[in-house]
Q: What sequence folds into this?
């Protein structure tokens, strides 16, 4: 963080604000890590996003806790724990360049899936929940531990298949990400990943994140969901390519 220019610092604050405005409106988001990876090491970004995710999810749950589908949350957590353990190992042994290339592929796939999903008629793809739960949990734990903000994609797919209301969806995905954040945060502490750079990044980002979550909550009811999802998908696709070629 100390090596960032004034322009890079402004970019950092802008991405944090937009990312957590998205999270404040939908309960999850996936743009923070790929966009910040342009100016910071993933070794700094991912632990920082884990901390911010805990705080932002707690802010959402403060008002939406009553909407959480606890049964669905507990059902997916065991496989998520397994994914976190595997992800923590690979986060420690892989270098930042390798992580960036893997992230680029994940982001491109996520963006293409999200964009396609806005044109897919509801209910056109049906997979048994008993089959998707262990896959979604383990993959989300693994990807979330490696890349911080990307886990929400898999939890969102899981909850979407359960056909929850918008309020229950938002509250439950925030609760799941809060639980995942605790698991990931503990893994990073054990691995010694909360370095001085990470702590400085958290301190700078925290007030900007708070403004983003507040703004996202205020505009939640006014969003055009389809247009918003397409915009996020396009941002992810554009962000993933340079990471893949890094």
A:
């Amino acid at each position: 963080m100390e090596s960032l220019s004034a322009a890079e610092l402004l970019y950092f604050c802008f991405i944090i604000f937009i990312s957590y405005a998205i999270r404040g409106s939908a309960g999850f988001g996936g743009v923070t890590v790929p966009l910040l990876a342009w100016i910071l090491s993933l070794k700094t970004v991912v632990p920082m996003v884990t901390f911010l995710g805990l705080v932002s999810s707690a802010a959402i749950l403060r008002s939406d806790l009553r909407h959480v589908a606890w049964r669905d949350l507990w059902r997916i957590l065991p496989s998520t724990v397994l994914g976190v353990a595997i992800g923590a190992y690979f986060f420690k042994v892989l270098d930042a360049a390798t992580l960036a290339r893997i992230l680029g592929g994940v982001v491109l796939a996520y963006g293409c899936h999200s964009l396609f999903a806005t044109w897919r008629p509801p209910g056109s793809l049906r997979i048994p929940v008993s089959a998707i739960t262990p896959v979604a949990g383990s993959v989300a734990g693994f990807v979330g531990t490696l890349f911080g903000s990307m886990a929400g994609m898999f939890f969102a797919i899981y909850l979407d298949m359960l056909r929850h209301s918008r309020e229950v969806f938002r509250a439950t995905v925030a609760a799941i990400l809060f639980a995942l954040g605790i698991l990931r945060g503990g893994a990073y502490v054990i691995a010694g990943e909360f370095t001085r750079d990470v702590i400085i990044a958290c301190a700078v980002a925290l007030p900007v994140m708070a403004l983003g979550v507040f703004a996202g909550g205020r505009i939640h009811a006014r969003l055009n969901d389809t247009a918003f999802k397409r915009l996020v998908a396009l941002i992810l696709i554009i962000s993933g390519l340079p990471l893949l070629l890094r």
